[in-house]
Amino acid sequence: MLSQNSVSNRAPLESLNVLSWKGIQMKTFHITWITFFFCFFGWFGIAPLMKIVKDDLGLTKAQIGNVMIASVSATIFARLIIGRLCDTLGPRLTYTGLLLLGSIPVIGIGLANSYESFLLFRLAIGVIGASFVITQYHTSMMFAPKIKGTANAVAGGWGNLGGGITNMVMPLVFATFVGAGYTKPEAWRLAMMIPGVILLVMAFVYFRYTKDTPAGNFSEITRQQQTKGSFWAAASDFRTWILFLAYGACFGIEITFDNVAALYFSEYFKCDLATAGLLAGIFGFMNLFARAIGGIVADKVGAKMGMRGKGWLLAGLLTFEGIGIILFAQTNSLAMAVVAMLGFAFFLKMANGATYAIVPFIDSKNVGSVSGIVGAGGNLGGVLAGFLFKSENITYNQAFFYIGLVVGAIGLVVAISRFEKQSQTSEKLKLEPEMA
């Protein structure tokens, strides 16, 4: 017979202590967000160097727009597939395979010598974005329902931080290679090898030091959920698609801004490469706390008001995000642009956390599929926003203005949607995913 301590070590955690590495739950939590951080670092590693790439390859505004779209479009399909693989193979093997696959184009993009080849490599790199689905799925496995929103938000936020840090670090890596005597075309290519190699290292770490569940890997345990979940069951729930829209309006805009921010500050406000990267990095740095706050607040609201309260919270965050983006679009002052950016970034990243505080409770038997569909919505939002930035007839400021209007409209759609089950309108987070 198992001791009480032994049983608790094999169960989802009831609390989150971010300073602890004790137990497979916390070890997996930390390895998961760190891995996700480096996935984001590799995914957007080229973004702060786009000014150099633009000059090297002679890219036009429309071509840069196509590159932005390519960088997030492949992730749409990858996230749908990855979500299903998590439900079947488990997050450990799925993440390991994705890291091995994703490292290839990150390292290989240095071979690009034309717009067409650069576009194809950027498209392939986008597959790494599916790492988010695994991160949220794996974190959900390790924590009890009352803390899932917080745990998912912290893991997602700290991982997303990689998109901001890469804007700060990659210009320095580039400058280091230039200082070592390499030309600028050589330096940006060599710089991209760094995140690619790190992804290979993290593939080994993930395979070696994580487990699918607190009770063990899928191959080692008998799961209550052994009956195969249905992707179509997850897709037939209208709440999945409301969250699909919501995540497109928050995370979709985040990855768009990660792609365009450094170039925007460089060309519109005439900042040098390092300054533009630093300002863009500040946007990503907000993930250190803002997404976590969104998850924590959503858990608190959910405990008192159930799923409906979480929906209203998400609607409010999207509305304020939209207002902030509109203000950002209308300022000609660098200082005011930074202030507006910090404002809409805070609400945007809180909305990210609030969205995935709802996801695990939509369909307990198909958490991976729901997570994949909603995550794909984020990337579709990035793709659609990318078309605005590639247009020769729309300025970047106008593109941001239109995006702000759309985000506000989606906030209204979320506000009038019902997230609680029709037969359980008064439930208080009873939808615990049957995880192990």
Please characterize this protein's 3D structure.
It comes from Flectobacillus rivi. Pfam families: MFS_1. It is found in: Cell membrane; Membrane. Its main location: membrane. The chain is mainly alpha-helical and 436 residues long. 74% of the residues lie in helices and 0% in strands. α8 crosses α14 (290-329) and α14 (290-329) packs across α17.
User: Which term fits the overall shape?
Assistant: globular
Question: Rg from C-alpha positions?
Answer: 21 Å
| Number of strand segments | 0
- Poorly predicted sequence stretches spanning 5 or more consecutive residues: 422-436
Terminal CA distance reads 19 Å
H and E string: HHHHHHHHHHHHHHHHH
Q: Approximately how much beta-strand content do the residues carry?
A: under 5%
The largest sheet, given as strand count, sense and whether it forms a barrel, is: none
**Count of helical regions:** 17
**Kindly state the mean pLDDT as a whole number?**
89
Subcellular location: Cell membrane; Membrane
Pfam family, one: MFS_1
Protein name: Nitrate/nitrite transporter
Family: Belongs to the major facilitator superfamily. Nitrate/nitrite porter (TC 2.A.1.8) family.
